[in-house]
Amino acid sequence: MKHLQDCVTLHNGVQMPWLGLGVYKVKDGEEVINAVRTALEIGYRHIDTAAYYQNEEGVGKAVRESGIPREEIFITTKVWNSDQGYETTLKAFETSLKKLGLDYVDLYLVHWPVKGKYKETYKALEKLYKDGRVRAIGVSNFHIHHLEDLMADCEIKPMVNQVEYHPRLTQKELHAFCKRHGIQLEAWSPLMRGEVLQEAALVEIGKKYGKTPAQVILRWDLQNEVVTIPKSVTPQRIKENADIFDFELTAEEMAAIDALNLNKRIGPDPDNFDF
User: Fold this and answer.
1) Cα pseudo-dihedral 61, 62, 63, 67, rounded to 10
2) Where is the site described as Lowers pKa of active site Tyr found in this chain (predicted)?
3) Annotated catalytic, 52?
4) First vs last C-alpha separation in the chain
């Protein structure tokens, strides 16, 4: 991982950039268009959105107008909970694709494990994958037991599991499980919405390398082999988040960051979420 466009190879051979731009809570229209445009100009080639974010139109517009060949940009979107189920997921996908104004999506995810529905939903993803509408499929916010349940009878193993992941929630067991099964872990809210940036250990490590605590965390993600999608709408911050390829944390520093774990979430627990 020496460059912004370095990729991990998913278990089906598809290349996914290690670092991307997240756009959760970024307003559709100029705000999201400008954020995506800035990221692409800096060199990002991975954008993560979702039907729920209601900004797929703006993301698609920025991608289409960027002048960058479509095959060089990795686009993720997700099916929302109220659309889960086989037929409804297929319909939701068409809506997302239309809003994005693209011919295909690189990664399509089941946004949350809605009880009694996520298996049917995932079957729809398998169909979209077999039909060549998406290049990779996966899940988001799945615990080990959800993955085991899904894999008991799915045809195509998820390529990605996108979960809340940061120094206060290191998800070691889940990460090990995903590694064993060739499922790539991806971090949403890697900076814990800023909550962890004052942490003395991170400030200290940052000083040594002339980096911010945010940059230290994102580097920790990458060295843990976790794909990461920090969200920002500030050009300077988007640029800063990508400036993490010119230093490397030591094993001791990695362990010091691991030790910050409190199993603390800022988002809902997938087992106790009001779907």
Assistant:
1) 110
2) 78
3) no
4) 37
Annotated binding site: 111
Q: So what's the pLDDT on residue 275?
A: 67
How many other β-carbons are positioned within 10 Å of the β-carbon of residue 28?
Answer: 18
Asked whether 10 and 159 are in contact (CB, 8 A), the reply is yes
- Residue at token pair 């199993």: 263
Domains in the chain, please, with CATH? 7-258 (3.20.20.100)
Q: Does the pLDDT at position 1 exceed 90?
A: no
Each residue's pLDDT tens digit, 166-206: 999 999 999 999 999 999 999 999 999 999 999 999 999 99
Measured CA to CA, the distance from residue 118 to residue 237 in angstroms comes to 35
CA-to-CA distance for 74 and 36, rounded, in angstroms? Answer: 12
How sure is the predictor about 273, in pLDDT bands with cuts at 50, 70 and 90? Answer: confident
Candidate list 24, 44, 52, 53, residue with the active-site label: 53
Taking the CA atoms of 91, 140, 75 and 191 in sequence, report the sign of the dihedral they define.
positive
pTM: 0.97
